[in-house]
Each structure stands twice: as C-alpha cells, then as structure tokens.
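We treat protein structure as text, and this decision shapes the records that our systems exchange. Because each token names a local backbone shape, the row as a whole describes the fold. For reference, a complete record is included directly beneath this paragraph.
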Amino acid sequence: MKPAPSMPEPYDLLIVGGGVNGTAIARAAAVAGKRVLLVEQGDLAQGTSSASTKLMHGGLRYLEYHEYKLVREALAERAVMLRTAPHIVWPLEFRLPHMPSMRPWPIVRMGLWLYDLFAWGGGLPRSRGIRLDDPALVQNGGRGFSYWDGWVDDARLVVLNAMDAAEAGAEIRTRTRLESAQRQAEQWTVTLRDATGVHQVAARTIVNAAGPWVEQVLHGRLGQNDSSPIRLVRGSHIVVKRCLAGDHAWLLQQADGRIVFAIPYLDDFTLIGTTEVTVNDPTDTVIAPAEIAYLLDAANRYLRTPLREDAIVGSYGGIRPLVDDGTQAASAVSRDYRLELDRKGAPLLSVFGGKITTARHLAQAALERLGIEGGDTRNRALPGGDIRDFGALLASVRERWPFLDEPVARRMAHAYGSRIDTLLVNARTADDLGTDFGAGLRAREVDYLIRHEWARSADDILWRRTKLGYYLDPAQVERLGHYIRETIA
C-alpha cells in the first residue's frame, strides 16, 4: 500500500483577500521573512480597493466626528506614501468654495488649521484663503479655501503591494477561492479551489482580510461565530466629461452636511463622488438612480452650466466594510479599522474596516498583534517608486522613447515608475511594442502585465492596471480579450 501523500510544509500566514489590506499585510509579513500565501477569489483590487475616490488623505471631514487619532495616523501615512510611491501617489490641491449657508467661515478655517497642524512636517503646502477663479462656477470671484492632500492610483497600489510581497518571497494566487478550513491546535488545513481543481494546504495562521466578504469568510468558510458587526456602505461615483479646468480638485459642501469631491481624472474627465448608502450584499455595487441624481445635484449646486445625465461616461460603486458602531447615519460611521485575534486553536486574525490611506499602518499593526517582528515598510519603496523626482523621470522617458505620444508617456511613467525600463527595454520605435489595441496600449505592455502583474482578462488591464477602459470601444476590447486568452492558453 502506498503511503498517503504528506501535506506540504505549512505556510506561516495564509491571507484571504487581495485588496489593499490583504496585500499590505502580505508585503509586511514577507519582508519580515515569513512564508506567506495570499489567495484572492478574483483579480487583485477587483472589489472595494479599485472603487475608491482615489485619495491618499487624512480625511478633513473626520475632524467633525472628533476622529483625531485616525486623521493624524492617515496624514502620517500620506507622507510615507508620497515618499515611497511618488509615481502613483502625488500631491493634489483642493479648493473649497465657501457658502455662508453651509459651515461658517471661522469653523472651516479652524478645521483647516487643525488639519495643517496634524500634517506638520508632511511636506505639502499649508491651507490658505483664496478668491475663486474658475468661470465654470456660479461663485466665481467669491471666497474660498485651498488645502493639499494626495491622489492615489488605488488599484495599482494594491498590485504594487502584491509585487513587492512576491519579490520578498510571498506566493500570490489570484482566482483562487478558500472553500473551507479545519482548525487544529497548531495549524489550519485549508481547502482551495482554482481553475485546475481543488487543493489542500496547511497554514499556522489565517488572516481574514476579505473586505466586504469578511463575515462570509469568517462564518461560512472558516466556521467561526464570533466577530464584530460590520455595516456595508456603498460609495458610488460618476465619471463625467471634464467640467472644471485646472489640475486641482474641488471639495463641495452640501446642504445635508456631507461633502462631495470633484476631481480631475485621467486627461479628459472629472470624477464626482461619493455617496454613502447602507446595503446588505457585498456584490451590490451598481449605482442607483437616486445616487446619480444626488451627485449631479451636488455638482450643479456649484456649476454655472448644469451637468445632465448625458455627460456621464461611467460610474462605479465600492462596498466599504465599516465597523458598525451603532451610528445611525452611514456618513458618520468610523473609517478606522479593528483587528480581532482569535487564539482558540491555530491563530485567526480578522480585519474589519480600514481605508486605503492607512493600509500600510494596518499591516504593521496586524504583524504586531500576531507577535511577528520586523516587516517595517516605512522606508521601503514600492516597485517603481525608487525615484526622487517624478518630473525628471518623465523627462527621461520623453527623451529615451520619443515615439511615445505625450499622454502615453505620462501614463506609463506614472504606472511603472523606474520599472518602465523593464517594459520598454530595447524599443526604438512604436512598432517594437507590438499591436496597438487602442489609446497607446500595446502588446508588449499587455505581456508585461500578464507576466508580472497577474492580469488575466481585458477587465483586469483596462479597469485596474491602466484605467484605459474609458477610451477603448467594444471591438478593441474584444480584440484585447482574444489576445490575452491566446497568450495565457
């Protein structure tokens, strides 16, 4: 009789969830020298982490809810990310028109002063009073404020976390679902399913970072009963044809006490968001007609020429898994995170809440809860982020590859940073980059994304790796999808 096959050596950590929290924890643990496996049932950042407002910010409005600790932590992390990932995180000016019917001038001024104080030493300009100078605004010439925060390519942040984790030794498996797990005293026996079938692995610790699915994983697949209650809140956005000039964003106060952002997006659009609607299903991400109307009304309160629905070129919603603190209004629920460690047998750490800005800090806190030393990524550049001056990098790209159209050169410099060399090495003409699928997306870049960034579909590339989905027509998308299927077959 043949002996039963032995279980492979246990992983130190098995992380469930390929969003920003899961990949940040995988990165920190791998840097600490741990044997890490991360599994994600879809693509990296396929859920909430690619459906954010694209801000790396402290959260000015959180001051109203006295969340001073969260704001200070987030502003400190903003400074870290501006330094370690300057290609995908950069400073963004916000202008805030003052409407006497909203928050009084002294209250806003005091809030901005406190925000400046919490961000002291972060390297961005301080807030100031301004005269509005955009003729598209009803209040052009009126009073307002200027302050600074950060912009982030959210999905690329997740992918770069995963890349750095993999380069430090972690194993990243996308399109892999955790089916079930049996707990013993010292380890978990975990059943995984992917396109090739069912597999079993062992892990000393499980980290449940499944975002909106955290309770489903905890109760349905891990068989655990205790957890913090969470509230699922959909944040929806619309993307419209560019309606405001300049490289700065706008913070628009609303009569209901909320604020809505209007942010320059890509080269041709304005991103407007967000709403906050409580839902029951983590897949309930489609923006509702009432949310569209709310966001249009929010912008039109300030615009001289009102936006209509035909200006909308796209929309998206993300489900935020917030710790339910009993607050009635979804907008007032804390954006802070909670880590729950269960040691009734092999350890299980569950992550509740959190935000993109504080994911790196959350990862450090998770390692501390698990008693893992090392893994400090505060001064560790994300892949492509080992550059001092993005302007100098962009100038170099223009000089070395002059055949790239300006929007393409800028997009690729931002996306890949110093690693653009790996992608464009030996290219002398545009034809060297292969088939053009549209908007400057060529076969060599697609091959790179498949080989290095776990891309497996047109959606992975167009909506998460590059954001070029707004530019390609259906025929181009189908052509790209066919090429990907042929490449990975």
Q: What stands out?
A: The first strand starts at residue 11 and ends at 16. The mean pLDDT is 94.
